[in-house]
Amino acid sequence: MQRIFLTAAALLVMNGCGNECSFRKQCNGNVLEICGEGPDQVVNRKVHDTPCEAPNEICVEPTEDEAYCARAPQASCDDTFDESCDGTVRVTCRPKLIAPEGVPRFVVAVDCADSAKTCVDDGTTTRCQ
Prior knowledge:
- It contains one helix and eleven strands; from the N terminus they run αβββββββββββ.
- The protein has one helix at residues 2-14; strands at residues 25-28, 31-35, 47-51, 58-63, 66-70, 76-77, 84-86, 89-93, 105-111, 119-121, 126-128.
- It starts with a helix and ends with a strand.
């Protein structure tokens, strides 16, 4: 039984585990490419394409393995960014994630209407309500 397992493991390593990609997230023009999205992050990873569309029309890569769709024109931001509402669209700075200090964050937008809500600006923060 152990030989079968070792043989199967060796075959997976030799053929790249059936993976068609080796990155985590990257931009291909204005298309966000995610490798291995889904329940299995090790074997048979496939590229999943997500076009960056309104309200986040551009793909940005703040680090080598991180990418996401952001609002155009591309603008970096930090905790001092003034959130706002543009009709039903909430415009904010991408939340801080676990990342090295100095990694840029970009302006992102969420259309509150997608969840049948409106954008509310109380003067200090915005939210979909």
